[in-house]
Amino acid sequence: MFSRLREDIASIRERDPAARNSWEVLTCYPGLHAVVMHRWAKACWNADMKWLGRFISHVARGLTGIEIHPGATIGRRVFIDHGFGVVIGETAVIGEGCTIYQGVTLGGTSLAKGAKRHPTLGRGVIVGAGAKVLGGFTVGDGAKVGSNAVVTKPVPAGATAVGNPARIVERSAVQDARGQAAARMFAAYGVVPNGDDPLSQALHGLINQVAAQELQMEAMLAALNEAGIGCRRFEELSKFDAAQLNRLVD
After folding, report:
1. How many CA atoms lie within 13 Å of 72's alpha carbon, on the beta-carbon side?
2. What is the three-class DSSP state of 93?
């Protein structure tokens, strides 16, 4: 038990720059307390002492603000950072080395008893603050869920899901050395370099395309005017402001 606790403390200190020493982590980190109490509740649950398991879970929620059903499965070195408002459902499975921030829900969309209603997180998954992962699907190893994303479909290993409903951010097949190094770094709150919402990227692309077409139209109008063909009606139209629209999308 103590070796597992030391492992948890070491993993927290590795991922949280605010952690100054092991004593501070042991005494002041509700995420650690919630995980430790969940182990007690899980042991009671597996021993068919269901009420006692639920009661320990209930007490842990009051002490830490984190609600973990005793039936949930949590792997080693799981770090619940800040943690207030985290809800983890009965059939949820959290793999080793995962990081979960405050306000996260690992919930279910089915009311069928005995079914796999809650998500499975692979190894090293990061779930950003306020994200909702809803359903009995799998979030692959090393995947990231951005803050406030609402995920209702499987997420491939190593991908990043952002938005509501969540969309997968495509990663370039060719990355420079700096990009590869950044991808290997820990990404707090599921935020990664060049991790813009793909819908936002598509809108930016459309706006820039329209701006380019407007420049082509202006060149055509100038050529027509030089040829003596007046096009004043078109010149009186309001100018397309691509910069303002890009700011609105951002």
Report:
1. 30
2. strand
